[in-house]
Amino acid sequence: MKITDIKSQVKRSDRYSIYVDGKYAFSFGETELLNSGIHINLEVSERELEALKDKAVLDKAYDRALNYISLRRRSEWELRTYLKHKDYPPALVDTILNKLSNNGYVDDRAFAEAWVRNHRMLKATSQRRLSQELRAKRVDDDVIKSVLSEDETDELSVLKELVAKKRKQTRYQDDLKLMQYLARQGYNYDDIKTALNDD
After folding, report:
1. What is the pLDDT of residues 150-192, one digit of tens each?
2. Domain map of the chain by residue range?
3. What is the dihedral sign for C-alpha 168, 169, 173, 175?
4. Considering the domain 3-102 in this protein, what is its CATH number?
């Protein structure tokens, strides 16, 4: 068997279709193509072709994972779930996650730090709410505690700002409704009472 052609894909110019004996066999990303050393007119055995196809599956799965985390940081659990939904076998998922981790793309501590930092910038969020959100992403409790212990945000000040903002809305003129809203946001009763008394 012989590699008869290597063509850049139309929709993904960074991926290449590999043809064996005139028929499409598999595809590689640019980096994997260069690393593989394959070229037109290269003779390959059946076993070598199967090994190349296995590499192609890994390469495509890794590429998908990179695209997924390019949108925003992801927890390891989110990535594992995403790859499972793509029907990749557990051993391949582990290989991809190890590769991503070794390259610094999967790190639950860095994910948690970014999550807290971004949520603090975007809206008034309690530590309890942040903790719940990170638990939902299956971040380890020790990581969550450590990251939140380093968060220097003054919860009471954030709460008072939120109260002032919500008071401008008609529906939150009622103390009970406002208290219920703040409790749903994860603030504790004593802090809510203090913020409302200072209002």
Report:
1. 988 887 888 888 888 888 888 888 888 888 888 888 888 888 8
2. 3-102, 107-153, 155-199
3. negative
4. 1.10.10.10
